[in-house]
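Here is a protein:
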Amino acid sequence: MALSPVDEVRRAWSSRRPYQTVSWAIGAGLIVGGLVHLAVFAFDTRPWAGPLSWRKPATFGLSFGLTTLTLAWISGLCSTAGCSRWPPWR
């Protein structure tokens, strides 16, 4: 039986590795930054397109945040036994 998306996120979070925690935090921060820029755009009079718009920081935060979260999630599904250590200086 397949897990629901919420259960899958809970499973991924509970079985995370230290490097994934860093990736999840960075991805969440980027998404929050993108959402903040979207909120600022809602109250600003600048257009969506053009050189002085809120489009670039909003799309950067949302797209790279989603990419970082996806990579953190996928890396948890890969086997890294004996291949890597965290932190790398140990």
User: Anything to note?
Assistant: The mean pLDDT is 83. The radius of gyration is 17 Å. The helical segments are 5-14, 18-43, 55-77. Residues 21-43+55-72 form one domain.
